Amino acid sequence: MSFDHKAFLATLPDLPGVYRMLSAEGTVLYVGKAKNLKKRVSSYFQKTLASPRIAIMVSQIERIETTVTRSEAEALLLENNLIKTLSPRYNILFRDDKSYPYIVISRGEFPRLGFFRGSPDRKADYFGPFPSASAVRDSLYLLQKMFRLRTCEDSVFANRSRPCLLYQIKRCSGPCVAGLVSAGDYARDVQLAAWFLLGRQNEVIERLGEAMEEAAAKLAFEQAALYRDQIQSLRQIQERQYIESHKGEDADVVVAVREAGQLCVNLAMVRGGRHLGDRPQFPIHGNDSSPEEAVAAFIAQHYALHPAPARLLVSPLPDEMEETAAGLDAAAGRPVPISEARATMHKVWVDMALQNARLAITARNQASAQQGQRLEALRQALGLTEPLERIECFDISHTQGESPVASCVVYQGHGMKKSDYRRFNIRDIEPGDDYAAIRQAVSRRYDKLAEGEGVAPDLILIDGGKGQVAMAAAALEELGLAHLPMVGVSKGEGRKVGLESLVFPDGREALQLGADNPALHLVVEIRDEAHRFALTGHRARRSKARNTSRLEDIPGVGPARRKALVTHFGGLPGVAAASVEQLAQAPGISPALAATIYATLH
Fold first, then answer.
1. Percentage of the chain modeled with pLDDT above 70
2. What are the angstrom distances between the C-alpha of 309 and each of 138, 280, 284, 291, 300?
3. DSSP-derived 3-state class of residue 252
4. What does residue 305 show for φ and ψ, rounded to 5 degrees?
5. Lowest pLDDT segment from 381-395, 465-479, 573-587
6. How many C-beta atoms surround the C-beta of residue 239 within 10 A?
7. d(Cα 357, Cα 51) in Å, to the nearest integer?
8. Of the ranges 95-104, 265-274, 324-333, 560-569, which one carries the lowest mean pLDDT score?
9. How many CB atoms lie within 10 A of CB 427?
10. What pLDDT is stored for residue 50 in this prediction?
11. SS in 3 state form for 147-189?
């Protein structure tokens, strides 16, 4: 190693900061943070290192760059940003930068219960986070059933004159219509729902019991029966929640398992004493790392972006426990205990998380093996000599020629690679001309590839028959890319799945693989994803065009007034549902113009 570490270490300060270890080629090998840069970086040049992996990394160091920060918390944020940006070879990287969903209860006379994803603010009350959207939907269903809070948007709520279907099926108390529920009763239900989300189920049951007895004493037996049903629902939930803690605590369970060549970190969330589910993750650059290193890396990266709960239960404990705990405290701005499970309920949570991590590893390996078999079957069926790694598929979606949109989806690495998906708004063609549309989409997709930019696919799929394939082949030939393998997916009789034929651009006879062929299963899966992606884009484009045109056709309604109307009523449906008097209350809308808008939209 040519790097003179002794001379470099003599220049380091005893301050917090971030260090970057670089190779002779200038590649960043590792990014780390430190409470004390001098002590932390010096630890890499001791005679005994933590693992062979670290020893290999140190042997490649050509230079080290450092950035001093004002605090350890700043160092943690900078480290996380650099890891995400540079993806160093020896850092364990978690792609966990998506926001987690919450349940939100708005404020006002009749608060709204809903789904929320993003950064919580002080304008509402937020409960969570939840590990998945399905966990939020399940909880929302329970809350609607028990407390009958409204879930409609404010723009819809303000413009209703009669209760919706949710009121009819007893999932909403109908606060949108005067006289169906009082503000006081609704506020009580909101408070009970909040208590439930905070894990105070016993208090909710006690309060409902008191209300039931009071209603029965007043001979309001129908109301008493409603309270009774709510209590029974809560009892049933408590019975099903066999992993529930009655302490109402908030905790995250972080476990790491290495099995069958895979490293899985599983995050389980407990909020208000209720186990909300878990989310297994497979880190990048984790093959040579230990479970202890993976847990430490996950805690550092995850809680730099997401709020920390009251405590963490981990298995196994990180090797550098003191440094991991200090980083977590700095990120949270408060002490967050990290410990192994000792209480019985905590052990149940950790054991469940470990079991689910092992199941995730098994499922991932099985899926990978199955995808490999499908790719090989497709390669053999098409007579290709090179292995298939990247497949791109095109589809066109329109409604009688209106707002045509082309999609290109990408299959790579034994799964769909959504970051490489593309949509193309097709323009300057005859309405309904699918041939011209597919030719334009293929040309626009690969024009940069013809100039030497981008990654070439190993196979191109076209959703269509001979005509579409011929147009796609012509586009590739114009670009000088006729050598790229391509095949069309033609729907069979009655458009039944399993009867598709593969159409070749060279005119050879179409190939029908059969409904049980794994190669066809893969082709259909990719084709269906391309269809879904194109249809979603087409609907969005068509909706935007129609919504904009309806207001553009009204004299006196320019861009500023259109924006004011849509903002005031929460969208075009709200504008269409508004009365003349309500339209006149929007900024910049006179009574005469309000009458014109109402007449045009009706």
1. 93
2. 21, 18, 25, 22, 14
3. strand
4. -115, -25
5. 573-587
6. 9
7. 24
8. 95-104
9. 8
10. 64
11. HCCCCCCHHHHHCCCCCCHHHHCCCCCCCCCCCCCCHHHHHHH
